[in-house]
Each structure stands twice: as C-alpha cells, then as structure tokens.
User: Fold Importin-4 from Callorhinchus milii.
Amino acid sequence: MAEMLEKILSNLLEPDTALIQQATAQLKEAFKDPAVVPALCTILTSCPNPQIRQFAAVLVRRRVAKHWKKLSPDLKNNLKPVVLQSLQQEHEHKVRHSLAQLAAIIVKHETPEHWPQLLQFITHWTKSSVPGERQVGMLLLSTVVDISTEAFKRHFRDLLRLFHLTLEDHSNQPVIFYTIQTLTAMLSFMGTEEMNMMKPMIPKLLVGIQILIQHNQDQASEAMEVFDELMESEVSIIVPHLAQIVQFCLEIAANTNLGDNIRVKALSCVSFLIKVKGKTILKQKLLPSILNVLYPIMCAPPPEGEMDPEDLEIEDDIEEEVEAQTPKHFSAQVIDMLALHLPPEKLFSQLTPLMEPALRSENPYQRKAGLMSMAVLAEGCADHIRQKHLQVMLRCMCQALADHSEVVRNAALFALGQFSEFLQPDISKYSDEIMPLLLNYLSTIDNSKGAHLTKAYYALENFVENLGKKIEPYLPTLMDHMLSVLCSTNSNRGKELAVSAIGAIANAAKEALLPYFQAVITHLKGYLLNTSEELRQVQIQSLETLGVLARSIGKDVFAPLAEECCQLGLNLIDQVDDPDLRRCTYSLFASLSVVMGPSMAPHLEKMTTLMLLSIKSTEGVTAHYDNDSKTFLLLDDDLEEEDSITEEEEDEDDADITGFSVENAYLDEKEDACDALGEISVNTGAAFMPFMESCFEEIFRINDYPHINVRKSVFEAVGQFCCSLYKVAQDNPTDQNLEAFQKLVSVVLPCYLKTLEEERDRLLVMTVLEALNSILKHCKAEALREPGRLDAISKAIRDVLLKKTTCQDSENEELDSDEEQQAEYDAMLIEYAGDGIPLLAAAVGGQVFAPYFAGFLPLLLAKTKASCTIAEKSFAIGIVAETVQAMEGASVQFVPRLLPTLMSGARDTDDEVRSNSVFGIGVLVEHGKESMHTHYPSLLNILSSIISREQNRRVLDNVCGAVSRMILTHVSGVPIEQVFPVLIRSLPLKEDLEENVTVFNCISFMYKNQPSQVIQHLPQLLAVISQVIGTDQIQEESRRSLVTMLKDILHGFPQEFQSALRPLPQEMASKLRSLITS
Assistant:
C-alpha cells in the first residue's frame, strides 16, 4: 500500500488539474483503509522525495488529530518510535517541522510522561555536541511546548536551566530562535520561582536577538515577541533591565540599514514599555534618549522620488493612513503613547527643544514632524495644552495651512483635526480665526485630490461638530458648499465626505439646520435607495448622517420620517451584505429610538435578531496557518470520511493555525450592535422587555472579548440594560420586574468590580467606572440593596484613589521629588472613580454614607494642596461639594475639616477651583446649619471680595448661589441692605443655570419675609425675570413660584409693579402681563 500511496502523493504534487482530481479521489478511497497510517509512516522513513515525506507527515498528523481515540493501541505505540526515527534521520527542514508538529499532536493526547522516549530524545539532542542535532532537539522542544505548554509545567525549571546554555550557542542561530520561541510560549504559565530564574536571562535574550538580526530579521522580529509576553505576564522582572532593553530597541529603530518590520517591532516594544512602565522610564531618565531617536526618524524625508504613504493621492480613510506601519508613523505613535502615560510637564520640557527648531526649519519634512508632534500630543496632554500652549500652537497650525509644501499643509490639517477632537470647548473660542481659513481652504481644493481632500474635511468636521451656536454665522456658506458638492461632483469620495460633513454640521447647528433639512433628506434618500456597489461608501455615510439628523433636528421635525427610516434600514440589511452598512444601520436604529421611543415596538424583534446575529457572528475571523502546511489545506474537505467527527476531535485539528485576526469592519459591527441595543433598551422601555434576557445573555457572553473596544461597548450596554430595567420596575413595580432587576445587577456589578481590580487597560477601566456611575445615578438604593455591595463599591473607588488597581501600575514606582505629577489620563481615571462618591451618598443617604465619606476625605483633601495641579484641586473640591450636597444634614460633622479648604479654594487663581469652592461653601452653609452661623462674617467677606473683582461668569453665578443659600439658611446673619442689592445686580445667571433654582427660591423667600427689599429692587428684578421666564434657563417649579410671586406683588403693590414694568421693552412687559393674567 505504501508504494501506491507514494504514487498518489506524487501525482498530487504535479501541475495537472485532472491528475490532481484523480489522485484526490484515490487518496480519499485509500483513507478508508485502516492500514493507511502505517503505510504513510513507511513513506515517512523511506521515500527519497522530501515533498512527499512532508506530505505524508502532514496527513498522518491530521489523521491523528481527528481520530486519535479511534486508533488502535498498537498503532499508537508503533507511531511514536517512527516519528523519532524519522526526525533523527531527516535532513530537510520543512519535513522536520512537520514531524515535530506530528510529535506535538501525539503529546497533546498522551502527555510527556506517557512518552518518556520523547523526553529522552529532547534531552539528548538539545545537549548534543553536533550543531545540527541541537537544532533538531530545540525545534522539537519548541513545537511540543507551544502546543502543550501546560503539560510541560513540571519541567519548566529544567528547561530554564537548559535555556541559559542554549542562548549562549551564538554560532547556532536556529537554536537561539527556537529557545526564544519556547520561552515565549512558557511565560504566561510560569510561577514566581520560574520568573525569578528568568531574570538573569534578559541580557542573554538581547544578545541572542542581536545575533538573529544579523542573519534573519524576520526571525529576530518574531523573537522580540518575548518582550511583549514578558510585559503581559510579569513586567516586574524587566524593570532591572529596562534601560538596557530600551537602549537595545532604540538602536534597532535608529538603524536605517535594517528593514521597516524589525524597526517597527523595536518601536512597538518601546511603546509597550511606556504604557506599562512609564514612571520607571522617567525615573531612569530614559525620556531624552527615546526622543532623540524618535525625532530624526520623524524628520527623515522619504527616499528620492517617493512620498510618505499619507501624502500620496489615494482615497484612503485618514484613520487608516495614520496607522501605516512604517518607522516614521510608529515614531509618532510612540510620542502619542508618551503623551498618554507621562506627566505633560516632563514630556514638554524634553520635546519642545526638538519640536520648535523643526517647525522653523527650511526642510518641509522637519516642519511636518513638528506639526505631527503637536497632533499626537492633543489627546494625552489636553489640559496642559489648554492652559499653556493652545493659542501659540493654533497660530502655528494656521500659518502652516498656507505653507508652500502640500506635505506640511496635510500635517497642519491633521493636527488641527486632532486639536478639534480633543481640546473642546476651548478651541471653539477661536472659531472667528479658524473657520474662515478652513472655508477658504476647502473652496480651493481640487475634488479629485482624494487624500488631501480627506484631511481638509477631517479638520473641518472635527472643528465644526462642537461649535454649537457659534456655527450659525457660517451655516449658509457651509451648507451651500456641501449641497453644491452633492449636486455637481462626479467623485463618490467627494460626495461621501460632504455627506459626512453635513452630519457634523447638524450636530452643532441642531434646529438651525431646518432651512436645509428637506434638501439634505432628498440627497440622502437618493443615495440610500441606490444599492450599486460604486456608491456603497456614500450610502453607508448617508445612514450615519441620517442618524445624526434624527438626534439633532428635533423630534417633531424628524418624527414623520422615523417609520420610513426604520423600514429602509431593515430592507438595506436584507439587500446588502456589508458589515459597515449593518454597523451604521444599527446606529441609525439607536438614533430613531430617541425619536420613536416605545412606538418602535413592532420592529424590535427583527432589529434585535439582526444585531444578535452580528454579535454572535464569527464572520471576518481569519485563521493564519503555518506556511509549510498551507499547501495541504485544500485537501481537508476531500479527505473527510463519512463517519462523524466529534466537536472535541474537530477542535484538536489546530496544529496548523498560528493565530487569528478579525477585520476591523466586523469588530466595529459588534461594537455598534452592542451600543445600539443598550440605547434602544433605555429609549423603548417596557417594549424592550421581551428581548432583554436574550440580548443580555449574548452581549454579556463576550465581556472577555479580545478586542478592547468591543468589551467597552459590552460593559456600557449591560449598564444601560440595568438602567432600563430599573425604570420599567419603577413604572410597574411588580415582584417579577423588581426581581429581574436585582438578578441583573447581581451579575453586572460583580463583573464591573472584578474588571476594575484586574483589568490592565486604563480606558476600559474608565468605561466601567462610567457605566457603574450611571447605574448608581439612575438606580440609586435599589442597586445597593444586596448586603456588602456598598462596601465593595466603596473599596473599588478607594483602590483607584490610592492607585492600587492593576491598570495604575504603582508598584515600586515612586518618583522622588515630584511624585505628585502624573499623566492626564491617570488623573482622569481617578476623577471617574471620584465621581462615584457623591452618587453613593445620594443613593444610600447621608447618615449611612458618613463613615465612608470619612474614609474618602483624607484622600480628597490631599489633592487640594498648593503643590497639586489645577485639575486635581478642581476635582477634589468639586467631589467634596457634591457629596456634601448629597449627604445633606449628615455633612454637619465634617464642617471643621472642610471649611478651611473651601475658603482657601475660593481665593485660588484658577476659575474652576474658585467656582467649585464657592459652590462648596454654599452647600456647606445650607446643610451645616447652625455650625456655620459663626463663620458668616468671614464667608461674606470672601464672597464680597470675589464679586467685586471677578471676571469669570461661572464663579459669579456660584457666588449668587452661595449668597442665596446663606440668606435662606440664616437670614439674620446676613446684612440684607448691603447684600441683597448686590445679588440682584449680579443677575441673570449666565453659565451655571442650575443655580437659578436656589436664587429664585431666595427671592421668593425674601418677598415673604422682607417684602420691602424685593419691592425696592422691583425694576431690576422684573427685568431679570422677563429674560429667563418661559425659557429653558429655569425649571417649571421655579417658573410657577415666580408667577405666583408676581401675581401677589401685582395684587399687593399694584402701583410699584406698573411703575417697574413701564421701562421694560414692550415684548418683555407683554410676556410678564400674559403670565400674570393667564
């Protein structure tokens, strides 16, 4: 049979389709014979053709993998020596590799202890004096350990001792490579003792990789994965060698004689180290070395006659361009990582001396590097830029928009887009300077220049999206341009960009877009009903913009279109198989739920079914196979026998798979499906309940999905499910609904708390904190009913404030003289946790929460010291004030500890710190009652001093609120004749409109208790009331209270009222008259 099989395999390797089909049929028939495996083993040991020997090894392995349990004991036992004998006599690398994989599959079923000859073979051959034998021994070891790592755990210490020797085999590069591969597979399974054995191996790894670089850069790049695995598994053992590793990677990155892949891999290692050990990098003074390598790479011009990928005129999405894997692009990403994980002051002090000369350089690529540096600083250093650099940097970008080099203009547009995305609302203050520049720039661009046009729209969209009412002067020009593009251009990319820009404009303009609404809808309908492939991207973008319009134009305007849009979305999913289209349709459904609410009920069954299919789908997942095995995969289906294969056996057949990847579009589809289901559940309420359980189960099932953005959406969605179910239970408080809510939070909250403690990704932890806070805000005490839950959540918040969670990486990383400094995102994480403190207080009440607040207070007050940053002081004082407000009377015991801090904060140089401190004084007065009375003179002195010189409207508004609370709480402690006129003159409030409730309560109180004071200032008071009443600046309760007071004044003091009404503009006077007489 062996001779016949050999002939069949030989025919399968011939370039003759008919012969291959015939041979495949013959092979399928041969596989029905139990003697096929022994025959293939004969070929393994005797056939002179290495391709056929490899083919035989692969076929045996796949047979063994699928049918191990069905093989006879004799065959199993006979197979083992054949594999080792073949490995011993084989000289072809590809055949050896396939034999090693076969051995690994046997070990997976048998365990090493049931195959002692294998261990003896590995021990002998890895220590052989013959270089070739050492290679075979290490190849076999690396392969079996990779597939059955856990089975070798008891041998780890022996293997580590071996690796200390094999890493010194400097003349035998394959041995070094296989050693590092084996080590990489073992790392995530190692315990503390093994990790300690690893520590002295780090320098040997660096030497080994350096040797590999000289001979095989691809292998060297793969070997550097060992550092990624170390950083994931046990980063602390790297710390003693951190400087050495960083320097090693920087030398590789700076070496222009090496290929892009190995240089990018080295930069990737540096980036990962910054993420997990940023403080150590600062402490060991490695930042200057890193920047001095990155900057020349960023400034380097492309080879003569070429351009950087993002400057080519190709119509790629800007996000994809930025991710191009070249050393230049990755260098910018490393600076981005530095910005996200280092204190801005430290980074700017080192980066500015490199950035400023580059921006002034005659070389366009150096100017580009300076602008790209600014762009990637925007996210991580947003507060620092706002406070110290925004105006100068924006001026630099605006000047660069007129640069003679398109390369520089491209970079300026990208930088402006990044600033617009991350520096809101501050950047919007410069709209009068920036908008004319952008509009002029857009009008001069050739629509055929895809990449350049994309960048111009990127900057415009990000800038206009958050302008709010400031967009209105530019709305006619913007919309005329966009509608003109849709009517005239032949470029589908131009149409796509214009449709996207209309969405951004709508987001800012809201109802002001109404004059253009019908024209926009007409265009969008045309694109949405056209299912031609060439218009697909325009169609997808039209769905997205339609969703923005549904949210922004006003419910009454969009409601007549909502049903039609629902049907359109469902039809499109039926007609077009495209993950991006499905993603945008799901987002449209979420937007429509805002407009439709419970009336979306008839469509929910189909919508949820479609979205759950997307969440469960494995579409877009690609398995990556070992190169040596790809040739034989096409035969898999043909060789399957008719008899059934169990799922367990099917899963065993993965030896060829080296990894998986998922296309971004399918990840985005899952993410948006989760987002949409969460929002729809909130907006449709009880109508969503029939689908709640199945949606929760499917979404929660992927809470450990390998992609962070999908996990973020999962955690957000299940939090929204909790809020939705709580609302339903409150509206219809049946036992079933209340029990369902408790069951849901009993699963979700423990999962949140576990993630907060164990998750390494900082942004994901922030997402979980935000979702947790949302549950606390909406569900209050019901979310905390289970015993121990208040303790558990308080501990989680406290751990974040103390920087004890996994993602905060505080172990052994104290910075000497300036330990207060931290990255802005580290501070933001603490702020997200702190936001939960007043929410807990509001949920359980002040008396219950007081002991917990006593525990939090030292941590918060520590952030109010003079040496702390503005952001830290503002955050801590804001949390204290909100918690006092939530705790109400129970906060009286904390007056002695809080008042000095709040009084000091009221004198701070920063507007936000003053504003929060003054608000805190007000609520402490309100709830501290008698304990605050003795402090009135000093408090009034501070508030009077502020109001006499304050320029910031929010601070003034908070002073009005604080004074009003003082009057309401202890009117006899306030010199009304002096204070009340000043209060009235400071009205109406302009920014902190929430304080209107307190201010107008105070005025109503004064009218009841000291009406003469109100009548004395009636002209000013009526002017104020006429400006705010009937607007969204005051709540309905305040409106009713004011109307009642005005009616009473008219009745009691008619002459004074008419006299005060006379000077008002006719429109205002008429409004007041109609309110009083209604």
Summary: The radius of gyration is 35 Å. The longest helix spans residues 260-283.
